[in-house]
Amino acid sequence: MKRLFNTGLVSAIALEYLKFSSKIVRDIMEILIGKLGVKLDDSKMEGLQGIKKVNFNYYPACPNPELTVGVGRHSDMGTITVLLQDDIGGLYVKMEEENDAGKGEWLEIPPTPGALVVNVGDALEV
Fold first, then answer.
1. Measured CA distances, 53 to 13, 18, 24, 47, 71 (Å)
2. How do 116-120 and 80-84 pair as beta strands?
3. Signed CA dihedral, 62, 107, 73, 91: sign only
4. CA dihedral for 43, 49, 53, 54, sign (positive or negative)
5. Please, is 74 exposed, middle or buried when counting C-beta atoms within 10 Å of its C-beta (0-12, 13-18, 19+)?
6. Region class of 55: left (phi > 0), else alpha (psi between -120 and 50), else beta
7. Fewer Cβ within 10 Å of end Cβ, the chain: N or C?
């Protein structure tokens, strides 16, 4: 079976990305928690960050998009999710308050290619 990519190179890139993104997530968390008037030492911050992982989800353009499934509607179980958007879209948010979309409805977020979207995960919700 022919490989479509160099696994060693992909692993090295993923590890470098994990190191870089972990710093960004920690900075974001320190700002959010600081705004609540809370100061955490390093061990508590590491515990709050929890397991660090990188997911690569790639969905090539489909000639029949109505037949695609993707990841599906879900909440993010971790602390913070940083999503690099492309031009394909597919990001939805669940509306918690009554508005034009309606309470509890899922609203599609128009993609902004190259934008970083920061989602507060279940572990950080207050």
1. 13, 7, 14, 14, 16
2. antiparallel
3. positive
4. negative
5. exposed
6. beta
7. N
Q: CA 58, CA 38: separation in Å to the nearest integer?
A: 38
User: Which residue reads 């997911």 in tokens?
Assistant: 55
Contact 54, 17 (CB under 8 A): yes
pTM of the model: 0.62
> In one letter, which amino acid is 101?
A
Helices (H), 36-116: 42-49
The three-class DSSP label of residue 118 is strand
For 36-64, what is each residue's pLDDT tens digit? 898 888 888 887 777 777 777 776 777 88
Contact, 29 vs 56, CB < 8 A? Answer: no
- The three-class DSSP label of residue 50 is coil
What is d(CA 85, CA 115) in angstroms, rounded to the nearest whole number?
5
Encoding tokens for residue 51? 């397991």
